[in-house]
Design a protein that fits this description.
The complex is a heterodimer of chains A (437) and B (116).
Chain A: H1 2-20, E1 32-37, H2 41-45, H3 47-55, E2 59-64, E3 73-74, E4 77-78, E5 82-86, H4 99-107, E6 111-115, H5 122-130, E7 133-135, E8 142-144, E9 161-163, E10 165-166, H6 170-173, E11 182-184, E12 189-191, E13 198-203, E14 209-211, E15 229-235, E16 241-245, H7 253-257, H8 274-285, E17 291-301, E18 311-312, E19 316-326, E20 331-333, E21 340-345, E22 347-353, E23 355-356, E24 361-367, E25 373-381, E26 389-398, H9 413-435
Parallel strand pairs in A: 1-2, 1-5, 5-6, 6-16, 18-26
Antiparallel strand pairs in A: 3-4, 7-12, 8-14, 9-11, 10-13, 13-15, 15-16, 17-19, 19-20, 19-24, 21-22, 21-25, 23-24, 25-26
Helix pairs in contact in A: 3-8
Chain B: H1 2-22, H2 26-52, H3 57-81, H4 93-114
Helix pairs in contact in B: 2-3, 3-4
Classes of the chains: A alpha+beta (437), B mainly alpha (116).
């Protein structure tokens, strides 16, 4: 019996860390990642990228995409926090995974990295289309650029492109500037213009176009110029993050280690920007950066500390909220000067920029407007690359009680005088009128 | 030419007006004085409001309306006690005065409530 108990405790203590490591609002980083591959050779040819993920504490589970035993969830519980699709040619996933399963996975707040390639399968294209990205319909098309290709020993067909048109966002790409261009070889995609959540992170130069490099160009290419995106990201409304690229080889060790020289540029970089670019981007995609939380929303009258059940018109109040950003290991204070609070009833009556104390505490004091009704304190914070914050707290505002109005206002004394002189006048007039005969 | 004649006309008009008014009974003259006092007080308040602003607006309204109301009630009394007015020849002046007093009481009660 005692032995059984020891085994039970031991097994609990082994399993417990796995249970606790999963994605939660307190530790938003993904921990368990399913990597679906076309064949296991990718595991070694892209090992630098996978090792950088492992070194940051991710638990990678490599599976062949047509493995009949793979599943994203079991008994209604997701087994993974994120999914990496490095299987551009898969026509049908094995196991219980299909397009709907992947979309449900994202809809429940999990993250996704998709790497397609030339000859990407219809399934991968459909997944991308669901995310707001359209790959070039021609299966043999690749992005060709005769002006900003990467210089190589052989002349080549200019499909190996040195891209350096990055999105300008420190939160997505890290604060360190990416100096070397990023090598890209693969299929281009365009963004669905009606989807406002999808963003180009690395876009093509204006001279790029998407066509089959082996055949003569007979008709104008459907995708041209900077409408072509190499790498795009999506942050869904539930803060799930998706990274989509048309090149699987840009993650490869060969591209990570390759030296790069952009055509027409005299500087030759010893190492391409791929490693830095993709590492920083995967930090963003896996919520190690740019994930905000707001806690301790408080409001009270100036000079008091308790939160009242309602305010009176023209009260002076103080509103405060603490905002933290997840750094991958801990919650760090978020410092920005553009967080605004609204005092809202159908439309914002007060809109104030919150002042922060550099330690994550945002506060402001303002006067309740001279209007009564049911108001809300609202913080709607949407900033490029950050998860969106949407806080609202209802608070009624009442008018003055009848005994709260000001009495005997000095300005009004002439009016009081007039009213009383009319009464006195009436009194005197009555006597005069009655006895004047 | 035209101007001097119109001035003369105006003078003649005022003269006839004054001589006609001199024939008014004394009790009506007293009422006229009382109406003039009320209107003058109302005008002073409007000018004061224009200078200092409309902040205690309820006080301003009640001050002005007490003057206007007083003036209106006094005019009503004047119509009723005027002997030459045939319309009210059946109404005794005592009854008219009692109405006047009652209306004034109601008016000032309302004014006091609204004065703030």
């Amino acid at each position: 019996m005692g032995k059984l108990w020891v085994i039970f405790v031991a097994s609990i203590s082994i399993i417990l860390p796995f249970l606790c490591n999963s994605f939660s609002p307190e530790t938003p980083t993904d921990r368990r990642v399913l990597v679906l591959l076309d064949d296991f050779a990718i595991k070694s040819s892209h090992s630098l990228y996978f090792n950088s993920l492992k070194s940051r504490g991710f638990d990678l589970d490599f599976k062949l995409a047509d493995d009949p035993k793979i599943a994203l969830q079991r008994y209604g519980q997701y087994l993974y926090d994120a999914l990496i699709l490095f299987c551009p040619s898969i026509e049908r996933f094995g196991g219980s995974i299909d397009l709907a399963a992947i979309i449900n996975f994202v809809d429940s707040g999990h993250d996704l990295i998709i790497a397609a390639d030339a000859n990407a399968s219809d399934l991968i294209r459909e997944v991308a289309t669901e995310c707001g990205v359209e790959f070039d319909e021609d299966p043999s098309a690749m992005v060709i650029d005769h002006t900003s290709y990467a210089v190589s020993a052989t002349e080549g067909d200019h499909t190996l492109i040195a891209g350096d048109d990055f999105i300008k966002s420190d939160v997505i790409l890290g604060s360190k500037k990416i100096d070397a261009p990023v090598l890209f070889q693969g299929i281009g995609h365009s963004l669905n213009p009606s989807n406002s959540l999808v963003l180009k992170v690395l876009s093509a130069s204006p001279a790029a176009y998407s066509a089959n490099p082996k055949s003569k160009l007979s008709t104008p290419p459907s995708l041209t110029g900077s409408a072509i995106s190499f790498v795009s990201i999506v942050q869904a409304r539930n803060n799930a993050r998706i990274l989509i690229t048309g090149s699987l080889s840009m993650f490869s060790n060969g591209f990570f280690r390759s030296h790069v020289q952009k055509a027409g540029s005299p500087t030759k970089h010893e190492k391409s920007g791929n490693e830095q670019f993709l590492t920083e981007l995967s930090k963003w995609a896996f919520h190690e950066r740019g994930h905000l939380k707001a806690v301790n929303v408080k409001h009270h009258k100036v000079g008091e500390t308790d939160e009242p059940a309602l305010y009176r018109i023209n009260d002076d109040l103080e509103y405060s909220v603490e905002i933290y950003e997840w750094s991958g290991t801990s919650w760090e204070p978020y410092v920005a000067d553009d967080v605004q609070v609204q005092f809202y009833m159908m439309s914002p009556y007060v809109l104030k920029t919150l002042l922060n104390n550099k330690k994550g505490l945002y506060s402001i004091s303002f006067k309740v407007p001279d209007v009564y009704g049911v108001f809300q304190f609202k913080v709607e914070y949407q900033k490029l690359g950050y998860t969106s914050l949407s806080l609202s707290k209802q608070i009624p505002v009442r008018p003055y009680r009848h005994n709260e109005y000001e009495r005997f206002i000095p300005t009004a004394y002439p009016y009081y005088g007039a009213a009383f002189s009319m009464m006195a006048g009436f009194f005197i007039f009555s006597f005069v009128h009655l006895y004047s005969k | 030419m035209g101007r001097s004649s119109s001035t003369k006309d105006a003078q003649a008009l005022f003269h006839s007006l004054r001589s006609a008014y001199a024939a008014t009974p004394v009790n009506l003259k007293i009422i006229d004085l009382y109406v003039g006092f009320a209107v003058f007080t109302a005008l002073i308040q409007v000018v004061y409001m224009a200078i200092v602003g409309s902040f205690p607006f309820n006080s301003f309204l009640s001050g002005v309306l007490s003057c206007v109301g007083t003036a209106v009630l006094a005019v009503c009394l004047r119509i009723q006690v005027n002997k030459e007015n045939k319309e009210f020849k059946d109404l005794p002046p005592e009854r008219a005065f009692a109405d006047f007093v009652l209306c004034n009481l109601v008016l000032h009660l309302v004014i006091m409530n609204f004065l703030g």
